[in-house]
# Entry
Amino acid sequence: MAVGRSPHEAILARLSMGKKHSPKFLAIVNAARNDILECEPSEFRGMIEDDESLVVIDVRERHEYEAGHLVDSIHIGKGVLERDIEKHEIGEGQRMVLYCGGGFRSAIAAKSLKQMGYSNVYSLWGGWRGILAEGLETE
# Structure
């Protein structure tokens, strides 16, 4: 980790290495991250293993989901999340974790669900890459 850099900033730098995100997109992501709940992959593992109810939503594109996803996750793409979330029996207080490839799109999606009245929504920081690194069950 670089001097003066928070752990989140170090992870952000590593995740961004593979893709060059535009400054305006990163500004939207950072604003969302300041307004939502987030969890790290190790914390997510604990959420999966505890006795509380949990809904996991993969907000990536269909082709990404079909290439591999967390076992028992639901696919609702970020582009249709607001439209389709109510087609599922998910209460506004239901604990949910959203994930994408790295935690960027899921942060924006979590903020949108929060604005819709969902109060217990987390974005998985590290996303799909974090799921794989943590060794969680995928298919």
About this structure: Confidence is low (pLDDT under 50) at residues 1-6. Strands lie at 37-39, 55-58, 74-75, 96-99, 121-124.
